[in-house]
Automatic annotation (TrEMBL):
Keyword Iron-sulfur assigned: yes
Required co-factors: [4Fe-4S] cluster
The protein's name: Phosphogluconate dehydratase
One GO process term, biological-process aspect: D-gluconate metabolic process
E.C. no: 4.2.1.12
NCBIfam families named in the record: edd
Organism annotation: Ramlibacter agri
Gene name, Swiss-Prot/TrEMBL: edd
Organism lineage: Bacteria, Pseudomonadati, Pseudomonadota, Betaproteobacteria, Burkholderiales
């Protein structure tokens, strides 16, 4: 299938824009790849230290027989249900490596926080910056520089982007990402959302709410809604960095272990066949565009408009929100997974999953097929379903959609566009995810009510002050102000107001991610208020127009007055509240150095 002209144009735009930085990046990783192996290059004391902790036979293989040595970066902890299964993965990986004459070592662990635990608390203000902390920890682990390939064990929100950023700074190494899979379905996401809305109205108490939440989040595995964690897995498939079809196989299955073992064989096959497929070469402008297309086609998390900008920068490429917007205009919505539908990720997998979406996009000319992947067969391998519970691992054709209420062919898409819009105007640049927003709510014009924190909005809702048409503006939520927390706690009250018939919207320089849902929300507004952005000029009662159809976000204020209006300032009390407690003082440097959201909120550049 001929490549769609818009996809080709966006790819070429990225290629041309990134030529100097990408060329320099490729030169660095090529030079690194041409060095002797670490065990041959380093001094004897260095080598002795590197392998002192492994068995004599494994040491002999690596040092004397030049056997491949795989570095494992593990995001294991049992605070995250999705990451708890990783406790036993290193032993599985080491066993498989030995069976193939290789060695594997845990090069390092990285932090992995659960946004579900910290949601609405001060801890969430560390969440975005945990991505760069994970990248730094990945670099520390790999800095021992004795590895021939790496396996990245991580799933959830900031963890995969952090691992990917870190891995790309060691772009000369073949790298395979190893997922763990979703938990079995519990209480449906729709039912859980209904209980949350009732709790917001005071119709049910804490006991009923806790019971519902525990039925939804009930065992090991990722949460089953299509938020950032599961969007990560979709994108890893589309980028060719997984074993094909590994994303949504549940942790409790025998197939899950087989796929983990196959990740070892996949990494070793790159080395043994001498196929030049290091991660820095795989992740090029075509690979990045493929990830963007997959995100749009599935209505994935808006967090990736920040994360994938940072990922691209790590591989010497520059992308922006215009690229996402242009792709969204031609990439159809092929999946309805909560919050963009009622299905969860297990139903998505059963209906056809990532393989179905990738096949449809390839056949429609909406993904690049001529790309490198960790598999010799290329991206077409990612259109097949893994099988082999209790037997040999094999792959079969995805076939037709098993549920067209969940996934559909490109010619019968749920929507002709990806449901993501760039908004521009005198309030700055922002994005809105409209794939779950009712058509009659794509344009909201109403008086603004200004809040300086999400707690202030919650208090106003409980006091009955928001029972009208309005645009809720929550500012001082950007990277430099307080680390850009997600504001999911605002979804239930705003959904309640919308359910009562009021025309409401949210405008914020904070994040909402993959669970923004049915309320129109202009998010990631940049420049942020704390950096002198225009949200700081807004006042209560100003008319704000959010127009997702036209792609605009405007304060309907006289231009002369707007130009001379003095912006509000973050108060000393607010700044102090954002700076201390649960370790936030340690992240002051990151807040100070953070780039704007559209530049990836990177803290290392």
């Amino acid at each position: 299938m001929k490549l769609h002209p818009v996809l080709a144009a966006v790819t070429q735009r990225i290629r041309e824009r990134s030529a100097p930085t990408r060329s320099a990046y490729l030169a660095r990783i090529t030079a690194a790849a041409q060095r002797d192996r670490g065990a041959d290059r380093m001094g004897c004391a260095n080598v002795a230290h590197a392998f002192a902790g492994i068995s004599p036979s494994d040491k002999f293989k690596v040092v004397a027989e030049h056997a491949p040595n795989i570095g494992i970066i593990n995001a294991y902890n049992d605070m995250l249900s999705a990451h708890a299964p990783y406790a036993r993965y290193p032993d599985i990986i080491k066993d498989e490596a030995r069976q193939h004459g290789a060695n594997a070592q845990v090069a390092g662990g990285v932090p992995a926080m659960c946004d579900g635990v910290t949601q609405g608390t001060a801890g969430m203000e560390l969440s975005l910056f945990s991505r760069d902390t994970i990248a730094l920890a990945t670099a520390v682990g790999l800095s021992h520089d004795v590895f021939d390939a790496t396996l990245m064990l991580g799933i959830c929100d900031k963890i995969v982007p952090g691992l990917l950023i870190g891995a790309l700074h060691f772009g000369h190494l073949p790298t395979v990402f190893v997922p763990g899979g979703p938990m079995p379905s519990g209480l449906s996401n729709n039912e859980k959302a209904k209980v949350r809305e009732k709790a917001a109205q005071g119709l049910v108490g804490r006991a009923e709410l806790l019971e519902a939440e525990e039925k939804a989040y009930h065992t090991q595995g990722t949460c089953t809604f299509y938020g950032t964690a599961n969007s990560n897995q979709m994108l890893m498939e589309a980028m060719g960095l997984h074993v094909p079809g590994a994303a949504f196989i549940q942790p409790q299955t025998g197939l899950r272990e087989q796929l983990t073992r196959e990740s070892v064989r996949t990494a070793l096959s790159i080395l043994k066949t001498r196929r030049y497929a290091p991660i820095g070469q795989i992740v090029d402008e075509r690979c990045i565009v493929n990830a963007m297309a997959a995100l749009l086609a599935t209505g994935g998390s808006t967090n990736h408009l920040i994360h994938w900008v940072a990922v691209a920068r790590s591989a010497g490429m520059v992308i922006d929100w215009d690229d996402f917007d242009r792709l969204s205009s031609v990439v159809p919505l092929l999946a309805r997974v909560y919050p963009n539908g009622s299905a969860d990720v297990n139903q998505f997998q059963a209906a056809g999953g990532p393989g179905y979406v990738i096949r449809e996009l390839l056949d429609a000319g909406l993904m690049h097929e001529d790309v490198l992947t960790v598999r010799e067969g290329g991206l077409r391998e990612y259109t097949r379903r893994p099988e082999g519970e209790g037997g040999a691992l094999r792959w079969s054709d995805i076939g037709a959609s098993r549920d067209e209420a969940v996934v559909r062919p490109a010619r019968q898409a749920f929507s002709p566009t990806g449901g993501l819009k760039l908004l521009t105007g005198n309030l700055g640049r922002s994005v809105i995810k409209v794939s779950a927003v009712p058509d009659d709510r794509h344009v909201i014009e109403a008086p603004a009510r200004i809040f300086d924190s999400q707690d202030d909005l919650q208090a106003a809702f409980k006091a009955g002050e928001l029972e009208r048409d309005l645009v809720c503006v929550v500012r001082w939520q950007g990277p430099r102000a307080n680390g850009m927390p997600e504001l999911h706690k605002l979804t239930p009250p705003l959904a309640v107001l919308q359910g009562k018939g009021f025309r409401v919207a949210l405008v914020t320089d904070g994040r909402m991610s993959g669970a923004s849902g049915k309320v129109p929300a202009a998010i990631h507004v940049t420049p942020e208020a704390a950096a002198g952005g225009p949200l700081a000029k807004l006042r209560d009662g100003d008319i704000v127009r959010l127009d997702a159809t036209a792609g605009t976000l405007e304060a309907k204020v006289d231009a002369g007055e707007w130009a001379t209006r003095e912006p509000a300032r973050l108060s000393d009390v607010q700044a102090a509240n954002n700076s201390h407690g649960v370790g936030r003082e340690l992240f002051a440097g990151m807040r100070h150095n953070a780039l704007p959201a559209e530049e990836g909120a990177c803290t290392w550049l």
